[in-house]
Design brief:
Layout (H helix, E strand, L loop, with lengths): L14 H6 L13 H6 L23 H16 L9 E2 L5 E2 L21 E5 L21 E3 L4 E4 L5 E6 L9 H12 L3 H11 L9 H10 L6 H12 L16 H15 L5 H13 L4 H15 L12 H25 L33 E2 L1 H25 L2 H9 L4 H21 L14 E2 L2 H22 L6 H23 L3 H4 L7 H17 L4 H22 L7 H20 L2 H4 L4 H10 L59 E2 L11 E2 L1
Pfam families: Fungal_trans (PF04082)
GO biological process, one term: nitrogen catabolite activation of transcription from RNA polymerase II promoter
Protein name: Zn(2)-C6 fungal-type domain-containing protein
């Protein structure tokens, strides 16, 4: 009921609207305002307005003073959690609590995974609720069923989600304070940073929906999940100088912003939405801190959100179907490349992964959305790049599952001299898929296809391919032993040599458009794998001349990493540090080995590594990434190696080949070698 003796509406807002600092709007012939009616509360005019304190006149406020002022404000607001409410502001000055209640068109109406004040939990097949009991879901039937706690929302006749309220979950009362604190750090540059993100990062890593993000941002930054808002700003800040106006301003405090983002992400995991996974993946592109642990958390969250399922026929908006597919595959890639880099088992199992392959329809942005501004990424190329990275990640997953599981490693070791035969048999299908993948790359993903004034992220894709091949041949190399057939031993090492040389040539071919672009989070570890592979070849060299050759190549590779990292490619610094660490291990082994083992590594090489390892390589920083070059027509089948000509003749001259240790009298024609007695076994790998 309206309060008696209430003043005229035009004189002042009601007590509730004054407290919310909202416009007080009354519908015609109504005695209470819209917001009070919406919240089913009294519309009173009892409280007196708070006195306003005049701020002292000042030309400018220094950053430290502003930070203290904001901190004090946040502390005050946290003392009154009742004032913390997420309301979607509307154009007429009122507010609603969910997107379905917005007047006019909005992409977010009927969303499942990005609701304002509710989060969802997938009802799995063994859970206590059984959606099938409700029968078939018709197009006109009721899709939401109220429960004692929350609501059951059906997306199909057999699948459903629990919708649970956000209020009451951990850290919910801090959300608006966190958002204000994030915005305070970057203001007044928020809009410019969002534009920068969608110009450079988004085309190469499209796990957001641009139109949805911009719709929310146009109303208020307070509609976002705090870690997602911060993550977008953090990645955009890496390209601060690519905006003429921003480059003239003082750059915001990145460390403080990252600290807020991580704190907020830890809170939102307790009320997970699609934005939670988006924020986590973007933070992992910014820094590799706690990468494996955060990846594990995100995978658990994603299963609860149903990101592992095919949502093609669900009763949700079409744009969300495409977003779920892109985001799900983005997490799949994160899992596989994190597994490769950390050496830990992958957490996503193919038996519980039902996502369909991405199609053009899953990417709302296309060539018509290209940004012509200097230093932008290509939208169409980014879509193709992302799709091929998904396919390559599936090949990597098969490789890891085939020869790097605990069981496979034990079986290979238990086989003794026959272990190499097992490895070659297992990796041959993977190698053939790699060849097919490489051969099918379109011309636009060539390292040499670059455009004026455009950045090019194809490097991270090509580097990922190099890392996958090196990982495969590293497994073969580690299986070689003194009991291996001499001819097969020489062939395997020769192929490994060609892979190493190809990787070195690739890194040397990187152009400024590649080095300055967006690099995937796995790029530092993938650069490091090239050095690891070269060090392994060096440690197993059979002659001093061969060892000296690899020592020289590793010195050259370290030099490339050094000059690129000192000129902005900071993602190469971890590779340089790991190269130094591995050569240090090699030196330690040689110094503690018998004279016979020590003689395999030249004295000058030992002295070189000892001296080089004492040189500081600089601290490991936060990274973002650049890359590569290869042309499909330069590819030779890895399963049919021929040594009469160089594997990649256009990439290095004959003088780079370690001629002094090349196998003598190798038949220039492709040969086939069996792994048992005789050469006609059906399970042969052709070279």
């Amino acid at each position: 009921m309206a309060s008696p003796n209430q003043p005229k509406r035009k004189d002042r807002p009601c007590d509730a609207c004054r407290k919310r600092k909202s416009r007080c709007v009354t519908e015609e012939e109504s005695t209470i305002c819209v917001l009070c009616k919406f919240h089913n509360q009294e519309c009173t005019f009892i409280q007196n307005p708070q006195s306003r304190k005049r701020k002292p006149t000042q030309d400018a406020e220094d950053p430290e003073t502003a930070k203290r002022r904001h901190s004090t404000s946040s502390t005050r607001s946290k003392k009154s959690p009742g004032a913390q409410t997420r309301v979607i502001r509307t154009t007429n000055g009122t507010g609603v609590e969910e997107y379905d209640d917005l007047e006019g068109p909005s992409l977010l109406k009927k969303t499942l995974g990005l609701q304002n004040k509710h989060h969802s939990q997938y009802v799995g097949a063994t859970r206590g609720l059984e959606p099938v009991l409700l029968g078939q879901l018709s197009t006109t039937g009721r899709s939401e069923v109220p429960l004692t706690e929350g609501t059951l929302r059906r997306v199909s006749s057999t699948e459903a989600f629990l919708l649970l309220p956000d209020p009451g979950t951990q850290g919910y009362s801090d959300e608006l304070d966190d958002l204000d604190a994030i915005e305070a750090i970057i203001q007044p540059h928020g809009k410019s940073l969002v534009d920068l993100y969608f110009r450079i990062v988004f085309p190469s890593f499209p796990i957001l929906h641009k139109e949805v993000y911009l719709e929310k941002y146009s109303r208020s930054y307070r509609e976002f999940s705090p870690p997602l808002l911060a993550a977008v700003y953090l990645l955009a800040l890496q390209y601060w100088t690519y905006d003429d106006q921003l480059s003239k301003s003082v750059k915001p405090d990145v460390l403080e912003l990252e600290k807020l983002a991580r704190k907020a992400l830890g809170d939102t995991i307790h009320r997970p939405k699609l934005s939670t996974v988006q924020a986590g993946l973007l933070l992992l592109q910014h820094t590799d801190t706690d990468s494996a642990e955060l990846t594990a958390q995100l995978i658990s969250v994603a299963y609860g959100l149903g990101l592992h399922l095919d949502a093609s026929n669900w009763n949700i908006p079409d744009w969300e179907k495409g977003l779920r597919k892109r985001l799900g595959w983005g997490l799949y890639m994160q899992d596989k490349w994190s597994s490769l880099g950390s050496g830990r088992p992958s957490l996503i199992n193919s038996a519980n992964w039902a996502l369909q392959t991405v199609t053009n329809a899953d990417f709302p942005e296309n060539a018509a959305h290209e940004d012509d501004q200097e230093g932008s990424s290509e939208v169409e190329k980014g879509r193709i790049l992302f799709s091929h990275m998904i396919t390559l990640s599936q090949i990597l997953a098969d490789l890891l599952d085939t020869v790097f599981t605990v069981k496979a490693t034990r079986d290979i070791a238990d086989a003794g001299p026959k272990g190499l035969s097992i490895v070659l048999e297992k990796v041959k299908p993977v190698q053939l898929r790699l060849k097919e993948w490489f051969s099918s790359l379109p011309d636009c993903l060539s390292m040499e296809t670059t455009k004026v004034l455009k950045l090019n992220s194809v490097g991270y894709l090509r580097l990922a391919y190099v890392a996958t091949e090196i990982t495969l041949h590293r497994r073969i190399l580690l299986t070689l032993s003194s009991a291996t057939d001499p001819q097969l031993y020489r062939i395997c090492r020769s192929v490994a040599h060609e892979r190493f040389m190809f990787a070195i040539d690739f890194v040397q071919s990187l152009k400024p458009q590649h080095l300055s672009s967006f690099w995937y989070f796995a790029s530092p570890q993938n650069f490091a794998l090239i050095g690891v592979f070269g060090t392994l070849l060096l440690s197993t060299a059979s002659t001093p001349e061969e060892a000296d050759f690899y020592r020289t190549k590793l010195r050259e590779y370290r030099w490339i990493l050094k000059i690129n990292s000192e000129n902005g490619a900071r993602y190469m610094k971890p590779a340089m540090a790991l190269l130094d660490a591995n050569t240090g291990l090699l030196t330690t082994r040689a110094e503690s080995s018998s004279p016979q083992a020590l003689s395999q590594i030249p004295t000058d090489q030992l002295h070189h590594f000892q001296n080089e390892n004492t040189q500081p390589s600089g601290p490991t920083e936060h990274f973002q990434f650049p890359n590569t070059h290869l042309s499909p027509n330069e590819y030779t089948s890895p399963s049919q190696y021929s040594f009469d000509t160089q594997y990649y003749p256009s990439q290095h001259s004959a003088s780079t080949s370690p001629a002094t240790f090349t196998p003598n009298n190798l038949d220039p024609q492709p040969q086939e070698f069996g792994y048992g007695i005789g050469g006609n076994n059906p399970g042969l790998w052709s070279y």
